[in-house]
Amino acid sequence: MKDLNTFLTERKEEERPLRKDEGKDDQLYIDLMGYYKHVARKSMDTKEANKYLVAALKLGKEGDVSKNAKLGAAYI
Q1: Structural domain range at position 26
Q2: Residue 5 lies in a domain
Q3: Number of domains into which the chain is organized
Q4: Which helix (H) or strand (E) holds 21?
Q5: Which region holds residue 29: left if phi is over 0, alpha if psi is between -120 and 50, else beta?
Q6: Can you give the pTM of this predicted structure?
Q7: What are 13-40's pLDDT values in tens digits?
Q8: 63: DSSP letter
Q9: Secondary structure of the chain: what % helix, strand, coil (to 5)?
Q10: Does 13 map to a domain?
Q11: pLDDT digits (tens, 9 = 90+) for 56-75
């Protein structure tokens, strides 16, 4: 019989198909931008906040991020 922890880690998340106007990295980009804004406002630590901003901008240039995700992240 399997242990509960091994059973939960073996389970793979089902990936849903992407829509035409959706990129693979959209959710990660929006999460990074949201966390950047949260850290920048709450902690006032610009160095830590800039780490998340740089990662998000790099993902926006090199990753598969749609225009809609970039526009949505601008309004966060």
Answers
A1: 19-74
A2: no
A3: 1
A4: none
A5: alpha
A6: 0.74
A7: 556 677 888 888 889 999 999 999 988 8
A8: S
A9: 65, 0, 35
A10: no
A11: 999 999 989 999 999 999 89
Rounded-to-integer distance, Cα 13 and Cα 40, Å: 32
Residue with tokens 């990074």: 32
Give the residue carrying structure tokens 């240039």: 61
3-state secondary structure of 55: helix
For 67, the enclosing helix (H) or strand (E) is helix 67-74
d(Cα 51, Cα 76) in Å, to the nearest integer?
18
Type of residue at 19: R
pLDDT of residue 12: 62
Roughly how many angstroms between the first and final C-alpha of the chain, as a whole number?
Answer: 46
pLDDT of residue 45: 78
- What's the half-sphere exposure (Cβ side, CA atoms, 13 Å) at 45? 10
